[in-house]
Amino acid sequence: MVRRSATTMAAAALSAVAVVGSQAPASAAPNFQVPFTCGVEVTAATFSGHSPANSVDFQREGITGMAVLASAGGAVTRSENEGDTSYGRWIELDHGNGWRTRYAHLSSQAVSVGEKVSAGDKIGEAGATGGVTGPHLHFEQILDGADRKVVLNGKAVPYYGHTPFTSKNNC
């Protein structure tokens, strides 16, 4: 009887391990791309005191009116215009598995809430709307509601400084 109980308990333990071990691993981030046309060079600026802390400001001469592209495929969840405050004109995309991106200070928006976009689709144009001192694109990567350090085409953006990036988006 003791032997049968031990065998039954061992089988139950192995079943529990199999159930736990078969759970799907956490999803990896999409392969986010620089949100500009293929070949465009921009500076990814990060600095202490930025809000949120892990956001990136893309800068470059003549950025106003440049096409802003989806850094990965997803669905438009926000398309807002806060006028001369905060983000100004901005868009948020949901990429699934808890991942979202935000694009702020746009001069125009080219998508609407509920619309599906592919990586490389134009979603707006860079500008200087909201509470800014000059034209740039404010960009965030968010996982489960928390901003994350930005990774573009598998390369982490260095914090804190100004780093050149060349877009490979939709090349």
UniProtKB/TrEMBL annotation:
Keyword check for Signal: yes
Transmembrane regions listed in the UniProt entry: none
**Which stretches are annotated as coiled coil?**
none
Quick one: signal sequence residues?
Answer: 1-28
Q: InterPro entries per the record?
A: Cell_wall_metabolism_enzyme, Dup_hybrid_motif, M23ase_b-sheet_dom
Which keywords does the record carry?
Signal
At the top level, the lineage of the source is Bacteria
Mention one GO molecular function: metalloendopeptidase activity
> Domain M23ase beta-sheet core: where?
63-143
In its UniProt entry, what is this protein called?
Answer: M23 family metallopeptidase
Tell me the organism. Saccharopolyspora aridisoli
Ranked from the top, the taxonomy reads: Bacteria, Bacillati, Actinomycetota, Actinomycetes, Pseudonocardiales
